[in-house]
Design brief:
3 helices; alpha/beta
Length: about 100
């Protein structure tokens, strides 16, 4: 069954600007997906969604994974190396230790 709604933070708030496009009183639709496109910064929107993940059944998608995927695809093309599976997971773990 598809989610009720998909809510995406593509505003830059939480990365380029402080805060979130919604207030802490904002209520996510039940069984929705909250997608935080930012991959660094305070990520307030993602934290707001995670706070409702159990009570409202909100699935939270972290922009960090999508950033890494895009980055590794470009690096893979430059070096003619497929970056997927275990290699991607290892690089993601290293990047997470350094950047997050």
């Amino acid at each position: 069954m598809p989610p009720a709604s998909i809510i995406i933070n593509a505003t830059g708030m939480g990365k380029d600007l402080p805060g979130s496009p919604i207030t802490d009183r904002g209520i996510f639709p039940e069984k929705s997906i909250a997608w935080e496109l930012n991959y660094r910064g305070e990520l307030a929107f993602m934290h707001q969604a995670r706070a409702q993940s159990e009570t409202r059944q909100v699935r939270v998608e972290d922009g960090w994974l999508y950033f890494l995927h895009g980055w590794t695809q470009v690096i893979g093309q430059v070096y003619h190396q497929e970056i997927a599976g275990d290699l991607f997971n290892r690089l993601a773990a290293i990047a997470g230790e350094i950047a997050r």
